[in-house]
Amino acid sequence: MTQTSSGRSAFITGASKGIGLAVARALVREGYAVTITSRHQDEVEAAAGGLVNEQEGAQARGVACDVRDAASLQQAVDDHVQAFGGLDVLFVNAGVGHFANVAELSIEDWDTMIETNLSGAFYTVKAGIEALSKRGGYIFTLSSLAGKNPFPGGGAYNASKFGLNGLSEVLNLDLRDRGIKVTQIMPGSVSTYFGGHTPSEADAWKIQPEDIAQLTVDLLNMPERTLPSRIEVRPSRPPRK
Fold first, then answer.
1. Domain Ketoreductase, which positions (predicted)?
2. Cross-strand partners of 183
3. What is the pLDDT of residues 173-217, one digit of tens each?
4. Residue positions annotated with a catalytic role
5. Contact between 74 and 127 (Cβ < 8 Å)
6. What CATH number is given to the structural domain containing 108?
7. Helix axes 155-175, 120-135, angle to 10 degrees
8. Quick check: is 29 in a domain?
9. What is the rounded distance in angstroms from the CA atom of residue 220 to the CA atom of residue 145?
10. Which residues, in sequence order, are bridge partners of residue 94?
């Protein structure tokens, strides 16, 4: 077991790039030790190595883990607790998106999105509850404005995010007596690699991953008595249609 500079640690899913990696970077700067996960071992190890190189004294672990596998997630969280002595922040970020009219949406794509975006979130939280309860920890679920605003071609994605919002609200009610805070973050357009998109200068108007990371740090620094339970985040000046 290693001791972090702050004594705090965070476990972040889907964090080899994009929002997850930006959150990890921000928390490392705040003195947290972090475990980041991805399905791809080479990518997540490289991302963790980058965090260590960027910040003197940083402690970061990269673990290959598919959030659809509850047993693998539990092992990853248990290993994190063993490495860092506990768990303070659980950032539920892993997600996928396949978009098609319901008539053309494949059963495989439906299953992948529901299992990853919704069941995977449940498995992640289940894996961390015991450790979080010991620290009075904080759970963040990364949802989307698509969790309240349906759009054509978003059948499975909308369903998964509507479900995640509902789960997040129940988590808040079920876990607050354990001293665990829960906040659902619901961004609009974010400049990430999600859905096969490649960020570019044309994304300058969008929310940046670093913006969500700053929001996360700000929420962690809120007074203990106060909980912003749902945060909707939009680009301040989207292009005119």
1. 8-193
2. 140
3. 999 999 999 999 999 999 887 777 788 888 999 999 999 999 999
4. 157
5. yes
6. 3.40.50.720
7. 20
8. yes
9. 22
10. none
Closest CA to 154 of 110, 186, 91: 110
Q: Alpha-carbon Rg of the chain, whole angstroms?
A: 17
Let me know if residue 241 belongs to a domain: no
- 3-state SS, the chain, equals CCCCCCCCEEEECCCCCHHHHHHHHHHHHCCCEEEEEECCHHHHHHHHHHHHHHCCCCCEEEEECCCCCHHHHHHHHHHHHHHHCCCCEEEECCCCCCCCCCCCCCHHHHHHHHHHHHHHHHHHHHHHHHHHHHHCCEEEEECCHHHCCCCCCCHHHHHHHHHHHHHHHHHHHHHHHHCCEEEEEEECCECCCHHHCCCCHHHCCCECHHHHHHHHHHHHCCCCCCCCCEEEECCCCCCCC
Tokens of 18: 């994009």
Range of the domain at 141: 9-233
Q: If you search the block for the tokens 């999600």, which residue do you land on?
A: 194
Across the chain, what does the average pLDDT equal?
Answer: 95
pLDDT in tens, 215-235: 999 999 999 999 999 999 999
How many residues would you count in the chain?
Answer: 241
